[in-house]
Write a structure and sequence with these properties.
Helix content of chain A: 25-40%
Mean pLDDT of chain A: 77
Number of strands of chain B: 22
Low-confidence stretches of chain B: none
Number of domains of chain A: 4
Helix content of chain B: under 10%
Distance between the termini of chain B: 28 Å
Oligomer: heterodimer
Order of helices and strands of chain A: HHHHHHHHHHHHHHHHH
Shape of chain A: elongated
Number of helices of chain A: 17
Strand content of chain A: under 5%
Number of strands of chain A: 0
Low-confidence stretches of chain A: 348-354
Shape of chain B: globular
Radius of gyration of chain A: 32 Å
Radius of gyration of chain B: 24 Å
Order of helices and strands of chain B: HEEEEEEEEEEEEEHEEEEEEEEE
Distance between the termini of chain A: 75 Å
Largest sheet of chain B: 22 strands, antiparallel, barrel
Structural class of chain A: mainly alpha
Strand content of chain B: over 45%
């Protein structure tokens, strides 16, 4: 029982100690009590005095603004060192740098001096000063902009913005896996932020080094080829046959292995014992080829295919390599059919069909 | 490459209109040894007309045994003011809905039609590495018709055919759909069907629910390697064994700075079934995440190719411009087969990002099936000109 209490106490102490790190408690910053100020009748521009000066400042009040009403009770640190929501200043900085926006035009125009027409959550204690994009679309024609993908009418340098979109397309979850399915129906939406080089950086046939390899100092850069991928790539490739072909040409494996001296004409066969034999038990290669034909094609593609044909040609000892029910629209005279069917013969010996 | 001159001309003209952006990145490693210089330029001559180019030169033999320099992208983009018409010309990756992206030298056109229909076409010559002129007459062409469904979704159908020296290499049809059911739920689907050797080539389904602190995603992937190979390959005719993967991912913002992720799923290849399990935690050490640590446990693979791994990484901002990062990964294959029982990989780096300059140095150490032990040094230097 004593041990259990000690463990419980230790856990609680650990949680309390970690609370600050986790952002659960803030010995420093906390959300600014906007609501209390609104209820007290303090106007927005009394603190954010220069909001309509047309400058690209953040329009955050300085200590002098606070001390017109408050005495500084704590210490010598700036008021904004504590009385601001975590991340709020960073969020505002992003907005200033990447939004084309003029407070003055809005205050004089549609907002008619009412800040809360856009900053809707302020009176309810919302920490996020940057309004949601849906707020903009209450006045601006959102559908036309979205259809025309004219994001640059309001957004500046979207591709270089650190924050990801929160309203119309969230890049959360396992985006590396999801993005293909999402982009299939929204490719033009992707292009509103990403340039052609972004897609080509991974999917291009002439990629010199993947973006993650060039950003080796950023351990959070997303990539399927991160960290010790070189060591484990054979396991990953065999566990998901064909996945490499999503970006790489089949011969990519052979060219890289040959360049690194791992395989090639001067090296012993990488295949284990029992790869090719006269009995079914000694013929692993058939099952493996059916399971991962891309792996075979990576070394034996092109001229190397003649190795298969010596046994699997019509009438050869290797028999019919087609599975039952297999069909093709290719003519027998075209590649690769003519390799095994040189005379146009169907030659189905073991159940395959065309 | 004839396109290079007008693109460079447009970029030069852009310098007088919109800021011309240039970026140069140099990467050097002792791994091969290899050196790489990447030049990235983009600019807009006027609203609706822009160009971009990424070219690289490399030393050493690590990158590709044939290429020591190449063009990744060199393209001119034009679109009408309302976005209803857009065109791209040059070298780029063409994407047609559910079909696999293809890197081409060619052109693409996109039109918005009445009744919320969209039409996109792309055609060109598939890119081969190495700036080779010794290529057979090959081409790829395709198109996609889609219809937007209100402002909440779209559905499309795409077709693509590729021929190499007259021979049919790829003929595929793709279906795609995406819908935001409401603010919290959305679904996406894509399907690619091989017409040359009839069969399902790829299928992807995803559905997600986004709560206040928890996001849940269900996914299903199906891929048949024989249908992804060129139809001219002998290996495209030997079967239709697919690999499949399905599971669920839960991402929980457990605390303002702490994200926890769990991925539980299964893989199947032929008759082999394997578990796909990932548990990951990421803790931001400041509000912006400039400093953060992450830890991850993973179980992956099927049959004899299954493995268990752990990864930890951290980045600490040392000051306004300086950061230190480290990364460690341990992989234990289920069946070592003489390749070593544990494959560790580690990297320690210091990076500097100040104004237009970026620099980083790192030491990488690893043991793998290829090397009992290996230590490499990496160095990167980047410079930006123009905004941002």
């Amino acid at each position: 029982m004593t041990l259990r209490r000690a463990a419980l106490g230790l856990t609680l102490c650990g949680l309390v100690a970690c609370a600050g790190v986790l952002g659960l408690t803030h010995s420093g910053s906390r959300a600014f009590p906007h609501r209390a100020h609104v209820v007290a009748g303090v106007s927005c521009t009394r603190c954010h005095a220069q909001v309509d000066d047309g400058t690209p400042a953040l329009h955050l009040p300085g200590d002098a603004s606070c001390t017109t009403c408050h005495q500084k009770p704590h210490d010598t640190r700036s008021c904004l060192g504590c009385h601001v929501a975590p991340g709020a200043i960073a969020e505002l900085t992003e907005a200033r740098d990447h939004l084309i926006f003029d407070h003055r035009r809005h205050l004089d125009g549609a907002a008619n001096g009412n800040c809360m027409r856009c900053h809707t959550g302020v009176a309810d204690g919302d920490d996020h000063m940057r309004p949601a994009m849906a707020t903009c679309f209450r006045c601006h024609d959102g559908e036309a902009s979205r259809n025309a993908r004219t994001c640059d009418a309001c957004h500046r340098d979207l591709a270089d913005q650190a924050s990801l979109p929160a309203t119309h397309l969230a890049h959360d979850g396992d985006w590396m896996r999801e993005h293909g399915t999402r982009a299939a129906s929204s490719g033009d939406l992707c292009e509103s932020c990403h340039k052609a080089a972004f897609c080509a950086g991974c999917h291009g046939r002439t990629v010199p080094a993947l973006p993650a390899a060039r950003r080796f100092a950023d351990p959070f850069a997303a990539s399927v080829h991160r960290a010790g991928f070189v060591a484990r790539h054979s396991l990953e490739a065999r566990s998901e046959p064909g996945v490499c072909a999503s970006c790489h040409a089949p011969e990519r494996c052979a060219s890289c292995h040959a360049a690194r001296g791992i395989a090639g004409d001067q090296h012993a066969s990488p295949h284990p014992r029992g790869w090719i034999g006269l009995t079914a038990a000694e013929n692993q290669h058939g099952r493996e080829a059916r399971r991962d034909p891309a792996a075979c094609a990576s070394c034996h593609g092109g001229a190397g295919e003649s190795l298969c044909v010596t046994c699997h040609a019509v009438g050869g000892v290797g028999g019919n390599p087609h599975p039952p029910g297999w069909s093709s629209r290719q003519s027998l005279g075209s590649m690769p059919c003519r390799m095994c069917h040189p005379t146009g013969a169907t030659g189905a010996r073991t159940g395959g069909s065309r | 490459m004839k396109l290079a001159l007008p693109v460079l001309g447009l970029l030069a003209h852009a310098a007088g209109a919109d800021p011309l952006r240039l970026r140069a990145d140099a990467l050097a490693t002792t791994a091969s040894p290899a050196g790489l210089l990447v030049l990235d330029a983009s600019g807009a001559a006027e609203p609706g007309l822009s160009a971009e180019a990424v070219v690289w030169v490399a030393g050493g033999q690590a990158l590709d045994d044939r290429a020591h320099g190449d063009v990744l992208v060199i393209a001119i983009d034009a679109h009408s003011r309302d976005g209803a018409r857009a065109a791209r010309l040059g070298r780029f990756v063409a994407m047609l809905g559910a079909l696999r992206p293809v890197h081409i030298d060619g052109g693409a056109l996109r039109l918005r039609l009445p009744q919320r229909f969209d039409v996109a076409v792309a055609a060109g010559v598939p890119v081969l590495p190495g700036l080779t002129t010794r290529r057979s007459w090959d081409w790829v062409a395709g198109g996609r018709v889609a219809r937007r469904l209100g402002d909440w979704g779209s559905a499309g159908i795409a077709y693509e055919q590729r021929r190499d020296d007259g021979q049919l290499v790829t003929e595929e049809v793709g279906l795609d759909a995406g819908a935001a059911i409401d603010r919290r739920n959305d679904v996406g689907a894509r399907l690619a069907y091989d017409l040359a050797n009839p069969g399902l080539a790829e299928l992807g389904l995803t559905a997600s629910h986004r709560g206040t602190h928890v996001r849940t995603e269900l996914y299903l992937l199906h891929r048949a390697a024989s249908h992804l190979l060129p139809a001219t390959s002998l290996f495209s005719v030997i079967g239709d064994v697919a690999s499949e993967r399905a599971g669920a991912v839960i991402t929980w913002t457990a605390a303002p700075r702490l994200d926890l992720t769990a991925d539980a799923g299964a893989r199947r290849v032929d008759m082999d079934l394997g578990a796909e399990l990932v548990a990951r935690a990421r803790l931001k050490l400041d509000d912006r995440g400039a400093s953060a640590v992450t830890a991850e446990l993973r179980r992956s693979g099927v049959g004899a190719d299954a493995w268990t791994g752990a990864r930890g990484a951290g980045r600490i901002a040392l000051g306004h411009a300086l950061a230190a990062s480290t990364e460690l990964e341990l992989v234990r294959p289920d069946e070592p087969r003489g390749r070593g029982t544990l494959w560790p990989w580690a990297l320690a780096a210091i990076s500097w990002d100040h104004g237009p300059w970026q620099a980083a140095v790192a030491v990488e150490a690893s043991a793998s099936p290829e090397y009992r032990s290996r230590v490499d040094a990496l160095c990167q230097l980047g410079r930006r000109w123009g905004a941002p």
